[in-house]
Design goal:
single chain, about 325 residues, alpha/beta, D-Maltodextrin-Binding Protein, domain 2, 2 domains, 7-stranded mixed beta sheet, two-stranded parallel sheet, 12 helices, about 20% strand, globular, disordered N terminus
């Protein structure tokens, strides 16, 4: 047997004798790839990069974001799910790719609940109902009345089938009991540009996307999607308190590992995540982006597992009942 084979066999034998917990304590020994299943620059990508930077410092190894977009995020999620479960490939994705896509695609290349190990919740993005600045309605009650009276000509915009803005609008229209023409775009940027120029009437999108345009006076906010008001928009009521009781739509983002990743490695990653979320500079930065930072007990693997199941139970029936199909 050649020398290098002897050395490899000896190393393997030695590793086999090391308890799994000890191996996990040594982890990580090289950079970790974090797949974000969307193009760079969006809310999920921005959140991933902020958290990964701090987690890299905690773990002593670089967490490198890899953007793998396409097919509503399914390509990136599938790549992460098929990766070797050694802790060196992770996924950072939101509820759309992991819950809503179950209703949108007949044959998903992954099972969100079976093929992925939850690591922890990274943050939740609230949403805001925004309208073109010259829309006659000045509050939610007037808005609902306006849309009902103008169903044949009213339009709402969204950043593609299955996007956060699509889900927010879908839930809103369902609760208003209206049938309004939807205008799909290839991304939030083009949709917001057209809302600013008055090409359609309204949209419901993540606060981080619409806050700059609201603050500039280019569009108006009529309600927020959470059950409590946003510090960034203290004068804007929640949609629930303004009259549509029970309306709540938030977009959560979380870290996942491939199925089979050891509990010790998942725990190590979760520890790094919780440390990052507890960092005052990180919390301040996320708050500036209107991201709701989870408490330690909300960022556990079990809490994320429950969050995923709850999202599937909520959104799959809603999307299927609406007859929504992927583009």
């Amino acid at each position: 047997m050649k020398r290098r084979h002897l050395l490899s066999a000896a190393a393997a034998s030695a590793l086999a004798g090391v308890p799994l917990g000890a191996r996990a304590q040594a982890y990580p020994t090289k950079p970790i790839t974090v797949i974000v299943p969307f193009a760079a620059g969006g809310p999920t990508d921005a959140l991933a990069r902020i958290l990964c930077q701090r987690m890299s410092e905690v773990l002593g190894q670089q967490l490198v974001v890899e953007n793998v977009g396409g097919a509503g995020g399914t390509i990136g999620v599938a790549k992460a799910a098929r990766a070797t479960p050694d802790g060196y490939t992770l996924l950072f994705a939101h509820m759309g790719t992991l819950a809503v896509n179950i209703a949108l695609y007949k044959q998903l290349p992954y099972d969100s609940q079976k093929d992925l190990e939850p690591v922890g919740l990274g943050g939740t993005n609230p949403m805001v109902l925004v309208v073109r600045k010259d829309l006659p309605a000045r509050n939610l009650g007037e808005f609902v009345a306006y849309v009902k009276e103008n169903q044949k000509k009213a339009q709402y915009g969204m950043a593609g089938i299955g996007a956060a803005s699509h889900l927010g609008g879908l839930m809103l229209n369902s609760m208003m009991k209206v049938d309004v023409l939807e205008v799909p775009y290839k991304g939030t940027g083009p949709a917001l540009n057209d809302l600013v120029s008055g090409q359609f009437d309204y949209m419901v999108d993540q606060a981080v996307n619409v806050l700059p345009q609201i603050q500039a006076g280019n569009i108006r906010a009529l309600g927020v999607s959470t059950l409590k008001r946003l510090p960034q928009l203290p004068d804007v009521p929640t949609i629930d308190e303004a009259g549509l009781k029970g309306y709540e739509v938030t977009i959560w983002n979380g870290f996942f590992a491939p199925r089979g990743t050891s509990k010790e490695i998942v725990a190590r990653l979760n520890q790094a995540l919780v440390t990052a979320l507890g960092d005052e500079k990180i919390r301040t930065r996320l708050t500036e982006l209107a991201v709701e930072v989870p408490l330690p007990q909300e960022a556990t693997p079990d809490a994320l597992r429950s969050q995923l199941k709850a999202s599937i139970d909520k959104w799959v029936p809603t999307v299927r009942a609406a007859g929504v199909k992927p583009q």
